[in-house]
Specification:
467 residues; binds pyridoxal-5'-phosphate
Length: 467
């Protein structure tokens, strides 16, 4: 299989990374760690000191059960993984860095081969970057280069969905659509990012079949309006993550959207930054929920490094790889691309993930079943849903009663000893108030039940306060 694997890119460094949030160059008042706190937190967050298994210990001695794999669906093996630490140390001693116009490295090659070999032939080449946002930017650039090499440079439009979150770089914010995250930094690359509706079947009130037909028509109409000859790609998360709080697609959705892409000959990009790398119960999320539809380009991140390293991946299928390789060069690269330590650690992480997939499926089913049972008579809980260990609990609490109900619940969960994530996606930020749970893949049955208990107790407490 490895002879099929062709990694993209052989150019020199373009970018340099500098930490904004924890400058050590300014004088630090010795009395308070929080005086140097990250810009985004304003120093108000409790500080985590250590973690063991799936529990954090805070500076004040409190323990918090980690229902969110480190907070952002990343630390998918929990902490305390001596094997991964040993791989990291070994690689750091042997070859910490090697990336040049004419130099690759073995861990990058090995990781590309391992991942592509498990893609059912969909993906044949990969490049590794440092964050999900960079993977999205890179995917957009690969789409652009593909159509340039095809002799169709006018294909500039990429259609994504509304709402959706695809990262925090300018291109990521531009192609995504969450009002609260996006508004501050507009305008974006003018007009090249377009949007169609993100499926929310239950809210639609339609039958699954009618809703899917409606969404496919919407994409078809959008492409027709833009001019099919001007459209480059459609981009979607197989399981929506943070914008609407975990949303598996309706049955038939991916085949219907793929048929429209095929009709107009456009590329299908799948963003698996959050839902992929085992989170949805299979290594790639498309293998769980896309009913045989495969991506032309796929992004992954988060769980890929298990929280030990900051790594993301862009994987491409034969249609894209052949075109770009035939052209001779992939015109994008970064200083820390295919970083040997990142890639070696990621390979160790994905090997462990593969063995944990049955637990992801079983614990995910357990968590959804226990939450559904606990909330079955609670009208303020609009929906409980999940795919693998990726679970969403959506609320229906009038915003005049509590404008940010999910945030209130998340804060109460934290006080009660559980780390969860609050999202308030929705098209305009008013719908889709939800709590997300995305625990480590090795979470135990009893730990999942404890998470459910704390979440249920926290929701009840918050609701009682509204009355
Ligand atoms: N794409 C999706 C679906 C995400 O959920 C995220 C982050 O949450 C990103 C892209 C951006 O990833 P990162 O925060 O690593 O840049």
């Amino acid at each position: 299989m490895s002879s099929l694997v062709r990694r993209l890119g052989r150019r020199g460094p373009l970018t340099h990374v500098r930490a904004l949030h924890a400058s050590t160059s300014t004088a630090t008042p010795a009395s308070s760690k929080q005086a140097t706190a990250q810009l985004y937190s304003s120093g108000r967050q409790p500080i985590a000191l250590s973690s063991a298994g799936i529990t954090f210990t805070l500076e004040d001695g409190r323990k918090v059960l980690d229902g969110m794999s480190g907070g952002a669906a990343v630390q998918c093996l929990g902490s305390t993984n001596p094997d991964v630490v040993a791989v990291m140390a070994k690689q750091a001693a042997q070859l910490p860095y090697a990336w040049h116009q004419s130099l690759g490295n073995a861990p990058g090659e090995d990781l590309a081969a391992w991942l592509t070999a498990r893609s059912d032939g969909a993906l044949v080449a990969a490049a590794f970057l440092n964050s999900g946002s960079e993977a999205i930017d890179t995917a957009i650039k690969i789409v652009r280069q593909y159509w340039l090499e095809e002799g169709q440079p006018q294909r500039e439009y990429i259609i994504a969905r509304n709402p959706s979150y695809h990262g925090n770089t300018l291109a990521g914010l531009g192609i995504g659509n969450v009002a609260s995250r996006r508004g501050l930094y507009a305008p974006y690359i003018p007009d090249t990012f377009q949007h169609v509706t993100t499926p929310q079947l239950k809210r639609s009130g339609e039958s699954e079949e009618a809703y899917v037909a409606q969404l496919a028509k919407e994409l078809d109409d959008k492409i027709t309006a833009l001019g099919p000859q001007n459209v480059a790609a459609f981009l979607a998360e197989p399981v929506v993550g943070s914008s609407v709080g975990v949303m598996p697609p309706p049955k038939g959705y991916f085949p219907a959207m793929a048929a429209v892409c095929k009709k107009h000959n456009i590329l299908f990009v799948m963003d698996e930054v959050m839902c992929g790398t085992g989170r949805s119960g299979t290594l790639f999320a498309y293998q769980s929920v896309c009913e045989g539809v495969q991506p032309d380009i796929l992004t992954m991140a988060k769980g890929l490094g298990g929280g030990y390293v900051t790594i993301s991946g862009v994987l491409v299928g034969p249609r894209v790889a052949d075109k770009i390789i035939a052209a001779g060069q992939w015109k994008s690269s970064q200083t820390y691309q295919n970083h040997p330590i990142n890639c070696a650690v990621a390979l160790s992480v994905v090997n462990k993930i593969e063995r944990l997939l049955p637990n992801v499926q079983a614990r995910g089913k357990q968590c959804v079943a226990e939450l559904q049972e606990a909330f079955k008579d609670e009208p303020a809980v609009y929906d409980v849903r999940g795919q693998g260990l990726f679970i969403g609990v959506e609320f229906d609490v009038p915003s005049d009663l509590s404008p940010r109900f999910a945030t209130r619940v998340k804060n109460r969960c934290f006080d009660n000893g559980l780390l969860s994530l609050a999202v308030s996606g929705g098209v305009d930020g008013t719908q889709g108030e939800a709590i997300v749970l995305a625990p480590a893949y090795n979470a135990k049955e009893a730990e999942i039940s404890t998470m459910v208990e704390i979440l249920v107790k926290s929701v009840k407490e918050c609701l009682a306060e509204l009355k």
